[in-house]
Amino acid sequence: MKLHPLSVPYRTGSAVARFAWVLVIGTVSTSQLDGFGALAAGALVVALLGVLAYQVAYVRRFDYELTDDTFDLASGVVSRRTREIPYRRVQNVDVSRNVVQRALGLAEVRIETAGGGETEAQLRYVSHDEAERLQREIGRRKRGDGETATDPDGTAPPVEDAGERLFAVTNRELLLLGVVQVDLRLLSFVTVLLPVVLPSVSQSFPLLDLLRAAPFVLAGLVAVAVVVSSVAAVTAYYGFELRRAEGELRYRRGLLQEYSGTIPLDKVQSVSLTENVIARRLGYAAVEVETAGYAPGAGDGSGSQSAVPLADRERALSLAREVEPFGEVEFERPPKRARTRYVVRYALVVAFLTAVSLAVVRFTGVTPPVPPYSPLALLVVVPVAAHLKWANLGYALGEDHFVAREGFWTRRTRVVPYYRVQTLVGSATVFQRRRHLATLVVDTAGSQGFGATDARALDIDADRADRLREEVEARFRTSLAETRTARRNRRSGRDAAAAD
Predict the structure, then answer these.
(1) pLDDT at residue 313 tops 80
(2) How far is Cα 321 from Cα 311, in angstroms, rounded to an integer?
(3) What pLDDT is stored for residue 303 in this prediction?
(4) What is the domain extent for residue 176?
(5) Is the terminal CB of the chain with fewer CB neighbours within 10 Å at N or C?
(6) Mean predicted confidence (pLDDT) in 392-402
(7) Is the pTM of this model over 0.85?
(8) 465 and 417 assigned to the same domain
(9) For all residues of the chain together, what is the average pLDDT?
(10) Which distant-in-sequence residues (6+ apart) come within 8 Å of 360 by Cβ?
(11) Same-domain check for residues 350 and 420
């Protein structure tokens, strides 16, 4: 099978648009020289024809096929590349299309595989109907279904009508999403910009000195950040819908760039309930699902996907249990001596900031608008900050899941099924050992190395960490054996049904 014929003009236009600024600068520069204007125009035409010829060759030499066991691709203009992707390794089949692609009836298909660090296969571009057909067919063959499900009239059901709808974002939640997920990078940008801009403003407008102007500028920046974040949330999650059907979650979202895809439930490594400080105050939370491998749009190369961008906390908790049926959780907190450790840590940070402030005054002679000892005022909030960090830590051993919670500004509660555990790592820094503390990291196939992306029992008693590692390992072995037995029984049932 071939890509859509309209892929040629669209790919050509996209390639030209990426380098348009180079062509414009080159044309303008050479046109200023006598006799080179026509040469530049000719070079531009040759470049456009070269791009067009390459895209024609690329599309003509691109083939794909759905076989019984694999999805096969053959591509390449200069060098030929063939790939066979077993259906059992497929994690997600995602379809995306922007405004121009929707107008042309085109769509891009991305196939992600388990353990992959990048997209395994891209089809740029096929018709939208073909994209949805591939999404359904690959999912069906991955599950091992015998025949394609059809409506009474004999046609395949559209993806958006298949399955039980679990969640649809409301207009209120869409607007709140912009408030909850304010892009703080704008605030950090202005923090750097203010010391540069305000002195010049103060010279022209004496009344607008640093202390008077800064609060108004910061308030205006927060307002702009909320508006920008709200617009970004509306365009990214407009029409967000989550459905469950045939052992997978199906989602659709987006206004300018529309996305639809699948999250296979049998590939889920962990589920996270995420609440930043604003969302907690409003009673809202987000649900993230982590699969083994790369997920499009994740940004960090992990397999983390937003299953629910924002919902009432109880509703979000109920949806998380739809993915992983965990029960009520009673968290065990670290010992109180861990809180003392945080007090010392934050106090040392305040002391460092004070030393830096004094050093600047001493060696540069600059007179700051506030006394150089002013960072010491932060010592008042050190005990509060240490308590909040300690109070938001916790872990729990459920019947079938390990649950860990951490974070104050953004609190994340991770739920890991025991049979998904890959590695258990106990660690203790020199500062932890002084207080007989340790950390247990529960790593899964979806985690990209050890660190804050894993479920962690942080700063717990060192002896308890050793016992906890043994308990999780024992439950892992039991759960893995039960899971393998259940899979064999399901496979035997399917084989018996196929034989009948």
Answers:
(1) yes
(2) 14
(3) 47
(4) 171-237
(5) C
(6) 95
(7) no
(8) yes
(9) 82
(10) 366, 368, 372
(11) no
